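DM from R.C. (forwarded with permission)

"hey, sorry to bug you on a friday — could you get me a structure for this? deadline for the figure draft is monday and I only need the backbone to look sensible"
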Amino acid sequence: MIILGIDPGIAIVGYGVIEYKNSKFRPIAYGAIRTPAHTPVEDRLKMIHEQLSEIIDKFSPDEMSIEELFFNNNTTTAIVVAEARGVILLTAAEKGLKISEYTPLQIKQSVVGYGKAEKKQVIHMVGTILSLKDPPKLDDTNDALAAAICHAHTSGSAVRQFYNLK
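My reply, with the result:
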């Protein structure tokens, strides 16, 4: 199975494409979609849509795993990021991808074994699981790869398959 992991954002959308086969991981591609500040939101959303479409077309993932949004205070940022997340979900749906959503806690639990793990623990485990020489420089990219790993672990579970859960 080829999984596209996404860490949604408006300025930076992290992505990671991995293959999960016979309980083994193989990184295929990872990086970030960046949109320039001071660009109208509708143009930024269009850039995300177009670039994500290209990534999906190029790597042909079977499924997409996306991090659910979690915000404490800044509702203005939350709304714009939610709009970007909507564009991401729409793009994946247009391309026929099965979409699964995970909370940051679920992703950390799956990758590190502890839902309140520190960022550097997640980065370390992503690098270890995917046998990366150097971790990606952007946290957004690491988070996207972690979301893809989480989906591989979760989608392969016997409970999930038995109940045919999303």
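R.C.: lifesaver. Residues 30 and 101 are 19 Å apart (CA to CA).
me: no worries. The longest strand covers residues 24-34.
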